[in-house]
Amino acid sequence: MTLVSIITPSFNQAAYLEQTILSVLNQDYPHIEYIVIDGGSTDGSVDIIKKYESKLAYWVSEKDNGQADAINKGFARATGDIVAWLNSDDYYQGGAVSTAVKIFDANPEVVLVYGNMLAVDEHGKTFNTLNYRQLTLEDLLCFQIIGQPAVFMRCSALEKTFGLDPALHFLLDHYLWIQIARHGKILHADQTWAAARYHAAAKNRAKAAEFGREAFLILEKVQQDENLAPVLARVSRRARASAHRVDARYLLDGGQPAASLSAWLRALTIHPPTALARMNLFVSSTLNLLGVGKLRESMLQRRRQKHQGR
User: What is the residue extent of each domain of the chain?
Assistant: First the structure.
């Protein structure tokens, strides 16, 4: 039976770590190699890991050079045919692993599968459901983002990459998907497999404004890759506009509406359809600049209440 290796990088996330671990250990798939790489936590995380160490294939707690380094350590230890990682504040839904394995078994040409994802707050309350669509390598180059916790990779494809790039801290997962997609088909499963937690200390909140910078860095890296550069050339304008659109989105989340609006307008001049597909960024940035940004927050709050009421 197919072995699945799952890596959890962890650093001072004791408030959420146990739920993450249990979401892996309680999967209905029996052949999981679970690896926990802790960065030397001082908040009680190690005690939680030790509580479950008999069910772990490997764990360590030592200083590392960040998330990419921790996950790459896990990749180096992994022996499974399928590999995934689950951050220590996220968690799987029941049946996620077994369903992913069935899809891989039925589709030998597929190198990566991804499901849908819940967005939850620090209390585990769902405030959004992220439903994706089937994407191509070109879509990934145009920064169509998929939720990392709901992604599973074939190890044979991962081994053809350099792993996670330590120069990236925010879009490191997306760049890896691009590398993997060069080696085969990626496939979307229209099922909810995981939940990503959004809280004050998470990168997606605490350093939102820095995400966009890495989109441009990824484009530079792709342009220097002799295998990917020709693919990028086919969608160059769309890709550049998409990088500005990503920048606009995260600048808005980071409380910089003027910079967000400027980035969105740059996307509009490069490839109008890309910018116009996210008119909400223009509207929200403008409302914030006009001093009525609380309206946007009110709309988001209503969305959270709607999902929590389900």
Answer: 4-204, 207-308
